[in-house]
Amino acid sequence: AQRVPRPLVALGTDGFGRSENRASLRDFFEVDAKHIVLATLTALARDKQKTQGSLQQAIKDLGINPEKPNPAIS
C-alpha cells in the first residue's frame, strides 16, 4: 500500500476475516469435535455400518444445525 511506510505483517489467521473466537471459528468451518464425529459416523453410514436413523439421531444429539449454510461458500 502506498500510504503505509513499511510492509504489512500478518499477525495470524484468527478470524479468517471474522471476529469470533477460535471455538466459534472451528464450529463455523465445521472442524470442531462434533463435526469430526459426524463425519466419522457419515462414513460409517456410507459403509452400511451405521443406519441413517442413527446418523439423524447423532445430528440431534450433537446439536448440529443441518440447515446451516455451507461454510465453504458462505
Question: Short summary of the structure?
Answer:
By secondary structure, the protein is mainly α.
Structural features, described:
The structure is a single chain. It is built from three helices and no strands. It has 74 residues and is mainly α. It has a domain of 41 residues. The longest helix is centred in the middle third of the chain and has 14 residues.
Topology, element by element:
Layout: H1 22-28, H2 33-46, H3 52-62
Helix pairs in contact: 2-3
The poorly predicted ranges are none
- The counted number of beta strands is 0
Q: Strand portion, in percent?
A: under 5%
What is the percent of helical residues?
40-55%
The class by helix and strand makeup works out as mainly alpha
Radius of gyration, in angstroms, nearest whole number: 18 Å
Round the mean pLDDT to the nearest integer and report it.
Answer: 83
- From the spread of the alpha carbons, the general shape counts as elongated
End-to-end distance? 28 Å
Q: Specify the biggest β-sheet.
A: none
Supply the number of helical segments.
Answer: 3
Order of helices and strands: HHH
What are its keywords?
0% strand; mainly alpha; elongated; 74 residues
